Amino acid sequence: MPRHGGLLSEEEEGQEKELWQGIRSGxxxxxxxxxxxxxxxxxxxxxxxxxxxxxxxxxxxxxxxxTLHQEFRDLGKKLGELRSERDRLRGRVxxxxxxxxxxGEGHDRRARPRPDRLVQEIAALEKKQxxxxxxxxxxxxxxxxxxxxxxxxxxxxxxxxxxxxxxESLQGLRVELDAARKRDEEISIEVEKIQKHRxxxxxxxxxxxxxxxxxxxxxRAKGKxxxxxxxxVDKLSDEIRDLEKSVMGLxxxxxxxxxxxxxxxxxxxxxxxxxxxxxxxxxxxxxxxLKALFKNGKIAL
Length: 301
Description:
Layout: H1 10-104, H2 115-131, H3 136-296
Helix pairs in contact: 1-3, 2-3
C-alpha cells in the first residue's frame, strides 16, 4: 500500500489500508483465474490438434473404404455376369438333353442294318449255296434269305448318308452338351471363388468402417470437450472482466481519496501562503509610513 505522507487522517488511513487489502486480494485472485484460463485454453488447443490429427488419419482409411467398396461392386457385377451366363448354359443344357432324346428315338445304332455285316452274311450264304448240297426247299429258303439281305443292303446303302448325317448331328449335340456342362462347372468354381473374395472384401469394408466410426466418435468427443472448455473459458473471462472492473474501482477510490487529500493540502498551503504575503504587505506599509513620518518632522501626539 502506498504511503501518503500525512495527507490522510487516521480514519482515512485505515480505510485506505482496508481498500488496498481488497485490491491485493482481487489481483491475486485475478492471477489465479488468468492462469486457470490459460491452462484451459492450452487444453482446448490440444483437443483441437488431436481432433485434426484424427481427421488426417481418417482420410486415408475412408479412401481405402471407398476403394474396397468399389472392388466389392465390381465383383458383384462380375458375379452377376457369370450367373447370367450359367443360367443361359443350363437352359441350353436342358434344351440339348431334350433334343438328344428326341433325335435319338428310333435311331439306335445297334438296331440299324450295317452294310458291311449284310455283305458278310450274303457272302457266307452264297458260299454255303455253292459248297453245300441241300434239299430244294432248304436251298429255296436260303435264296429267299439272300434276296431279303440284298434288299436290306440296298436300303442300308441308300440310307447310309442319312444315318451318317444324323450321327454327326447327334455327335455335335453331345459335344456341345459336354462343353456346356464343362463351362457350367468352370463358372460354378469361378463364382464360388469370387464370392469368397467378395465376402472377404466386405469384411474388410466393415472392419475399416468400424475403425472410421471410432475415429469419428473420438473426433466428436474432442470437439464436444473443446466446446465445453471454450464455454467455461468464456464464462471465466466474464468473471475476470467483472473482477478487473471491481479492482479498478478500488484503485479509482484510492486515487480519488489521495487526490482529495492533496487538493485539501494544496488549498491549505495556498491559504497559508496568502496569509504570509498579507502580513508582509502590512509590515512593509507600516514601515513605509513610519519612514515618511520621520522624514516630515516631529510627530505631534
